Each structure stands twice: as structure tokens, then as C-alpha cells.
UniProtKB/TrEMBL annotation:
Xref: NCBIfam families: MTH1187 family thiamine-binding protein
The protein's name in its UniProt record: MTH1187 family thiamine-binding protein
Recorded family membership: Belongs to the UPF0045 family.
Domain of life: Bacteria
One cellular component (GO) term of this entry: cytosol
Domain Thiamine-binding protein: 4-96
Amino acid sequence: MAIAEVTVIPIGTGTTSLSPYVAELQRVLEKQEGIQYQLTSMSTIIEGSLDHIFAAIRAIHEAPFQSDAQRVSTSIKIDDRRDKISSSEQKLRSVREKL
């Protein structure tokens, strides 16, 4: 399972507040199959197969355009570990065990 950290920034919205867009992105993610996700204060973490992650990223990248954003900048960071099963929780647990 891969883990992606995604930040979608709508540009040309007429306001500095992005929370309505972030809320809409979360609603879009609720409809996506094959993923788990978690909103953080700065990004969204998405876990699943690469195919499902990329489908989810495409959906959330497109969403601000449907809400009249004129431009969208999306940053993606992917951790794709294949030697063993990985998850955000497993990664955090591993660090906590070492503290």
C-alpha cells in the first residue's frame, strides 16, 4: 500500500480563506473507493494502491475548478514501500516505539 501526502491550492478564488475548498475536497474523497484518508492542518494523507491514490488525486485536483477557481496548484509526495505492508499508523507507531 502506498501513502501520499497531497496539498491542493486553489488560486484566483477572490478570498484568502480556503476552508470551503478543503471541505469540498474531503467530500470528494468520501466518494473515492479503495482509499483511506486523513485531513491534517496542512495537507491530506491518502493511503491505498497507486491506481486508487492517483484517481483520488485527480478528483480532488479537479474539484476546485468546479467551484470557480481559475487555477489549481497540487503538490504530491508519495511513499511506496513494497518490502512490507506500510501505513501512516504503522510509521508513527515505529517512531513511538523508539522514543
